[in-house]
Amino acid sequence: MNSEVRDVKTILGVAAVGVLVALTIVSRHGAAGGLLWLDIAVGVAGLALLPVLLRWPVAGALALSLLAALSPAATPTATLGALQVAQRRRLPVAVAVAASGVAAHAVQGWWRPSGGISYGWWLILITVAYGALLGWGALGRSRRALLESLRERARRAEAEQGRRVAEARMLERTRIAREMHDVLAHRLSLLATYAGALEYRPDAPPEQLARAAGVIRTGAHQALDELRDVIILLRDDDEDSGSRPQPVLADIPHLVEESRDAGTQVELRDEVTQPSALPAAAGRTAYRVVQEALTNARKHAADRPVHLTLTGRPGDSLVIDIRNPLPVDRSTGPAVPGSGTGLVGLTERVRLAGGRLDHEATGDEFRLHAWLPWPA
Questions:
Q1: What is the pLDDT of residues 197-232, one digit of tens each?
Q2: Strands ordered across the beta sheet of 317-325
Q3: How many Cα atoms occupy the beta-carbon half-sphere of 159 within 13 Å?
Q4: Could you report the per-residue pLDDT of 177-204, keeping only the tens digit for each?
Q5: Helix intervals (H) in the chain
Q6: What's the pTM?
Q7: Any bridge partners for residue 361, and if so which?
Q8: Is the predicted pLDDT of residue 320 greater than 90, yes or no?
């Protein structure tokens, strides 16, 4: 708004000075009587039309061209009108307005010739002057269009940056939710199993009750430790993010032992060659796959055996096959409630690792099959 007000003041000042200069020149060259009063009236009328020129450039410029045909006092305002149209309208419209200005000055030079120049040179100078005004105005219009384009691009870039930040936050939240589910669901399902045993067997021997209570306490501490691991893992700027070891393929036997201690029958067949050669990211993904499968088995088929097979070697792939019979009575819900999105998140995790995960219930058996690449 301030720049627009400044531009209006500049136009009014330049036009007023131009009209005064034109009137001075006309009066010194012998204009007198009615012609002098005509020049003064035309100059005042030209200044009065400037607000019209600023609001309606084409109409104002044409009106000023008509005044220029009557008196040289309107020449400054008429040329200013042609410049305004060239800056604010398309080139064909600007050319038409400039042509009307040349025609008006041709009339002016015919009935009020200048004593120091021929009529032919007068037309040439007027035509060159209006051509220069067209070029100047087109240059200014192109410059404004460029600046507006740059401002629009800056606004779009800012909006795009905001969108990317929002997407990054959403992805981070999804990642946190997936890590929380993978890490804590297994541990809490173990605690629920032992707590259920305490609830349904209050008459158990004190030694068994004490052992179960100790397992619950240890599991709670481990759940807190794993929760802290997740938070540290997700904070990429944390200096201690790599201080705690993350689970890998070699930790799967320990995971199986935990499930066996909780009462799940797990049969493990490990046919992996050089398990230490598996990349850490793939090993972590494999661990989460087995962890989720054992957690789901405890939730949905707590009294059924689980068959776990691991096969693979460097330069080929790692294959995880997990099967367990479905419960006889499927009308009841799971023993431990869950979010219902564990396999969805697990499938996405495996896909991001470059692998593939399939799961299905066929007949009386549930099967989970995962494939992970293993570069040489």
A1: 666 666 777 777 777 777 777 777 767 766 666 666
A2: 266-272, 306-312, 317-325, 365-373, 356-362
A3: 6
A4: 666 666 666 667 767 776 776 666 667 7
A5: 2-28, 34-48, 50-55, 57-68, 75-88, 91-111, 119-200, 206-234, 252-261, 280-300, 342-352
A6: 0.44
A7: 366
A8: yes
